[in-house]
Write the structure tokens for this entry.
Amino acid sequence: MGRKEIYAALEIADHEVRLVIGELFEARLNMLRVERVQTSGVNNKEIVDEKAVVSAIRKAVANATIALGCRIERVLLAIPSIEVTRCNQKINVSIDDGTRTVRLYHIQSGFNKAIGYRPAVHLELVNVGCIKYKINGITSRKLPLGETCDSFVMDMDLLFAQKKTVYAYARCVEQANLEILDICLDSYAMAQEAAVFEQAIDRYVVQVDLCRYNTCLSLFAHGKLMKCILLKEGYASWYEELQNKYGLKDHVCYRLLQNIFDKDPKKNGDNIIYLENINDVQVALSAHEVYALCYERIEEWIEKINETCRPITQGGNTRYVVSGEGVNIQILEQLMDRFSASASSYVPQTIGARDGAYTTAIGMIYSWKEIQEVRKDERISVNRNEMEESVESIRKVAHDGEGGFTRKLKNMLLSDK
């Protein structure tokens, strides 16, 4: 049996833990399982209740383990893009073995030398991105294996996050009895899945990660992640007045925004769209009431983004790419023309994970695969022996038909004779 590349990506979001398990096969990701568990242990991207977060991680992993039939032992972990520092490194690699031929260990030696750099004691390396190779005066992103030269230059960006943030998130995973396969900035992973790096080759791209309680703006230029800013307003600010007036829960407000909104006031009539009894008080909401309480807040959110990005949009060709959980709210698609530059939304199209909330987790898996061209780490997320046993049992059932409906029906027919 060929080597199975099964990876689990974990994102500790502002109100829930998201676990995505997928198998990479010939550069395609086949989704095996997704889990979402609510938690109140995060506030403004900071861990405020470690026990609550650890409990949510354990529940998500336990659910996925039961479904898959094998233990999840290690995960890819998303790190929030708070106070990200970018440092460029240019490493000269000499071919000193007399072959004048570039081999993988030459590239690995340059890579290891670059990642040894530390700009400050309070920073921790999270991502290595945009690796370029300059050989014989020619620059390329392709691995130069087999090229002939005396030396070559590796040009790469090192992305650092605050050490306290990285350690806080990592500690939650370790407390849940999991290994960390690798870490990745959430903005970097999202850009990997949404093809933002490619779009930013000849223009500025502002990536908008819309979460419940905050919004992360990430600037990309020249195919690189340049800067990240966190706005402490997410889609929850859109329904704050609605929630305060009627005492609705967050998930109810989210569903109201997600399914019934239209920017045209005439299409939001007085017909009742929501009915609930809250503390012996009947709450009846019409589409018009939801529109009246929320629509202006959405426009204010967009205007705040426009104001924040004004120096960028005024300086050159710019576009916005909006993703994250909030992109599932349909009204947002109708308001793309309100942004100060060309804007589009992104929702993953991977079967089983067609939800903006999974953009970061899916991107982590692709980011891990990309860096493996250099690192060659063959570890996977699940217990390999248990995974092979699970696959073999499924294959046996498929071959023998034992336990299947067809076999049961056949036995019933034969027993009647």
In short: The first helix runs from residue 50 to 68. The chain has a mean pLDDT of 91. The longest strand covers residues 123-135. The two ends are 41 Å apart (CA to CA).
